[in-house]
Amino acid sequence: MPELPEVEVVKKSLSKTISDLTIKNIEIRNKYLRYKINEKLLKKMVKSKVLSISRRSKYIFIKLNNNNTIMIHLGMTGKIIIVDANKNKYKTSFHYKLNDNNSRHDHLILKFDKKITLIYNDVRKFGFIKILKTAKVQSSSHIIHLGPEPLSKNFCFKYFREKIKRRKIYLKDLLMNQKFIAGLGNIYVNEVIFLSKINPKTKVNNICHKKIHVLINNIKKVLKKAIIEGGSSIQNFNNTKGKKGNFQQFFNVYGREGKSCTRPNCIGVIKRIRMSNRSTFFCNICQK
After folding, report:
1. For 107-125, how does the pLDDT look when each residue is reduced to its tens digit (9 = 90+)?
2. Comparing 58-62, 106-110, 226-230, 265-269, which segment has the lowest mean pLDDT?
3. CB neighbour class for 151 (10 Å; exposed up to 12, middle 13-18, buried from 19)
4. What is the number of other CB atoms lying within 10 angstroms of the CB of residue 51?
5. What string of DSSP letters covers 12-56?
6. Which of 45, 52, 99, 154 is the most buried (most CB within 10 A)?
7. Closest CA to 150 of 93, 203, 192
8. Among 3, 6, 191, 229, the one annotated catalytic
9. Contacts of 202 (CB under 8 A, 6+ apart)
10. Which of 190, 151, 149, 119 minimizes the C-alpha distance to 58?
11. Residue 148 falls in the annotated catalytic set
């Protein structure tokens, strides 16, 4: 599933591509995604202009000038494809191959002026598209219970310390909890915990104040680096111009089971265990 950096890259790409454009036509080929598309309501968005593109956690919002917002969640395999005036296609997802031209999974097509087309393609159909009143976006059921954005000032030492008081859950599970922090997923949580030299099965009530500061700094550092590098190309993530994400070149633990620890002077080996049905990678020496 795309995590915060990948969705941020998609958002930035869309901002450069469809901002200030007007929707000329909407074609719904399959309304049965994770949630059934409201065809009648969605088609009312024709003739509306895109005011801005934003992101909250792993959700993308296309704000229109008719007081409505198109909400997109990519799910596991969702991707947005941009077709330009010259019929060139630019893909934006990491769950597909570059030569994949399988259009039978094109579920929604938005045509804009300047001959720009946006296609929502989703093989497994776990993603969704909804129309929300712009004024009610932040109070929607998908957003209202989310924790702070990890790159915001609200995600700070005071917040972290207060939230872990008297809690005895594992650190890995805490960072994966979207109600605690929005947008983090398995890849980046593994990397952050490694950089912080903490075992992923450490109970959060046992984490000292110094380590809280280290965790917060590493979360912000890893996400900023991943965004700069264009996300992680696990299965060919590309932004809308087809450029691959490069952050996977900097993985220290994710997907490196059985390999030597990347930390200088550490003789450890990367282990993989299952936590909450997700693969968890860590060094058996420097993350004891």
Report:
1. 999 999 999 999 999 889 9
2. 226-230
3. middle
4. 15
5. HHHHHHHTT-BEEEEEES--BSSSB--HHHHHTTTT-BEEEEEEE
6. 45
7. 192
8. 3
9. 170, 171
10. 149
11. no
Q: What is the Rg, in whole angstroms, of the alpha carbon atoms belonging to the chain?
A: 20
Q: Is there a contact between 7 and 58 (Cβ–Cβ < 8 Å)?
A: yes
- Which one of the listed residues 44, 241, 272, 278 is annotated catalytic? 278
* Under 8 Å between Cβ of 84 and 115: yes
Cα pseudo-dihedral 159, 164, 170, 171, rounded to 10: 30
The verdict on whether 63 is a catalytic residue reads no
- Report the alpha-carbon angle 130-89-98, nearest 5: 95
Residue 143 identity (one-letter amino acid)? I
CA-based end-to-end distance of the chain: 28
Which pLDDT tens digit goes with each residue over 54-95?
Answer: 999 999 999 999 999 999 999 988 888 889 899 888 766 443
Residue 210 sits at φ, ψ, to 5 deg, of -60, -40
Angle (CA) 230 233 236, round 5°: 115
The conformation of residue 156, written as its DSSP 8-state character, comes to S
Distance CA 51, CA 70 (A): 11
The span from the CA of 100 to the CA of 96, in Å, is: 7
**pTM for this one?**
0.88
Indicate if 3 belongs to the active site.
Answer: yes
- Structural domains for the chain: 4-136 (3.20.190.10), 157-250 (1.10.8.50)
Active site residue 91: no
For residue 220, give the nearest of 153, 286, 174, 282 by alpha carbon: 153
User: By C-alpha distance, which of 114, 57, 117 is closest to 83?
Assistant: 117
Q: Which of 55, 58, 130, 256 is catalytic?
A: 58
